[in-house]
Amino acid sequence: MSDINMFIVIVYCNKLFSELAPACHQKFKSSLKKKFHRINERIPYHGGSTLLNEIYTELYITEGGSGEVNIEHEVRQIETASRRPATQERPIKCNDLFKDTAVRTVLTNGVAGIGKTVSVQKFILDWAEGKANQDILFIFPLPFRELNSVKSRKLSLVDLLRLFFTDIKQLKPADYYQYKVLFIFDGLDESRLPLDFQNNESLSDVTQSASVDVLLTNLIKGNLLPSALLWITSRPAACGQIHPECVDQVTEVRGFSDPQKEEYFRKRISDQSVANRVITHIKTSRSLYIMCHIPAFCWIAATVLERMLGEAESGEIPKTLTQMFTQFLIFQIKHKDQKYHGKCDTDPRQTREMILALGKLAFQQLEKGNLIFYEEDLRECGIHVREVSVYSGVCTQIFREELGLRLGKVFSFVHLSVQEFLATLFVFFSFISQNRNVLEHQTHSKSTVTDFLKSAVDRALQSENGHLDLFLRFLLGLSLESNQTLLRGLLTQTGSPSNCREETVEYIKEKLRENLSPEKYINLFHCLNELNDHSLVQEVQTYLNRGNYHRLDEVPLSPAHWSALVFVLLTSEEELDVFDLRKYAPSEECFLRLLPVVTASRKAVLSQCRLSERSCAALASVLSSNFSSLKELNLSGNNLCDSGVTLLSAGLEDQHCKLETLRLRHCSITEKGCKALVKTLKLNPSHLRKLELDFNEPGESGVKMLSALLEDPHYKLEKLDI
């Protein structure tokens, strides 16, 4: 279609929509524009809110995810995502989510604070301002945190919408079928509805009353208003509540890319010389830089560093997460005193009591898995609802309350990491002041700070999903006297024995010698960083800087040093695109030690490295991992034999396998191994495009079987060398 014809169609459609649109349409748009044109960054000294169009930085959103449940700690997920090569992703702009007419329901996942809600807000604002998606006549944003407040009521869909949107009361039930409408359900992870897809009754009439849960499940299944579009956002752990067959497209909000991080700081900090210093400082700490993928953390970092690097305040510039959150808390307390009393430190005892009460609330709600709280939750924690305004006044930017459409107040911390920091502060204070380990729920046994920290390390390592990873980093950071000194107004009793840090460091190094998962190794190194111990990493870095790393098989590296090498490679600023084992040591031991690096790489060159079937079993686990980035694998020149190829095939046939190129030249493969490969490709025909099997012994039968796959359009195989 020519540009002129396309223009005519657009003009005609706009005219048609304007004729179809009821009188309330523009009023409804204006109402949403008024509601969403500002973003509440909770920055009182900037006026409390900012125009969204001025501060908004485009987020990195990808399409084609699985929508599978991921219960790992979200900081661990961010660190994993930061190692994923960008070349593998298919980015999509937020306003293009419904460009494909075949898409009815989109599920967008992303960790807490990554920008899901702001993306929804910008989508709605662009629509209300006439900038995008004008083929949609009505957008109904229905956050789960507000739907929770009416979960016990029986309403029809029409009544529910009239309750939330007073401007559309003149719409008739038939109008919902006539117009193109979009429902946005933000924050599935905050839902307190059962979403019982299996047992809820079927409903197709928009005027029939039912529970809110029944309305939602029927909307999502397409029984109710099947012509409507749906957009659901969620943290990864809650995605499983929506059946995959109900979702047409899965997207993931990945937060800020590296250039977007810098763009955010330059927009957020008006003094560009200060912004440049903030960016430079953030880049010096890999752990801080990785966390800046999360927009909410960028805001925290900007709040702290703008003041400290702008010479408004003195003190050591934060290099660790504990230092950053400690300074953030201190800043909020000072700001509260200046705002409400015109001076600092009005009543240290009252401030301490309030902060620790928030810490207790944070800890108890974390144990329940709650990030948002209602009035009944506060009462359960011993906080009187009438005192909440005082808590908000103490820490305006730490604890916030929202008035949800006259449906009651909703409370939350500004980000999960802030909640975890305050929870950790409460746990640490309880032990220091009362010798009470609230993690173990015991008060009778007397133990030292070192014993307490060691038990926390053990407990974190026992967690399979890493839910205590960030807590452990904060706890170890708070054990340092330097951080306790900063918090002396809150901690009535401070101080750790002089040997506490050294003993804890040695204990962590002992754990690094054990057989742990890569994620646990990495978190332990982050813990050492919080304790200001960089000895292992520095030793490995020194060795690598000498240029001797291609002789690693001649050096008796300890397990802890191997772990340090993995940490250095995985947290390097350089993108892990190609991993060549021959650069380090062409041996099976080196390969198995560096397996996490292989998982994070796009291409692995393992040719002529004396690998056996043992390595094939390890590679199968890599290929079947949902977190694997591997697209190209070269195993040529290794005596893998048929048994090795059979083991490798277990990974190739897994649905998570993304491998596109496999090189197996000179690998002693016979007809039996070829049969295993054929079986694998039949089970998973959608990825492998290039297969090299030169200089093997496939026999006539093997050649024939593989060649048949090459000619069959059902398979992606494009090139076969045999």
UniProtKB/TrEMBL annotation:
It comes from the Eukaryota. Residues 104-238 form the NACHT domain. It is found in: Cytoplasm. Its main location: cytoplasm. It holds the Pfam family WHD_NOD2. GO terms for cellular component: cytoplasm. InterPro entries: Leu-rich_rpt, LRR_dom_sf, NACHT-assoc, NACHT_NTPase, NLR, NLRP_HD2, NOD1/2_WH, P-loop_NTPase. One of its GO terms (molecular function) is ATP binding. The keyword Ubl conjugation does not apply. Keywords: ATP-binding, Cytoplasm, Leucine-rich repeat, Nucleotide-binding, Repeat. This is NACHT domain-containing protein. The lineage of its organism: Eukaryota, Metazoa, Chordata, Craniata, Vertebrata.
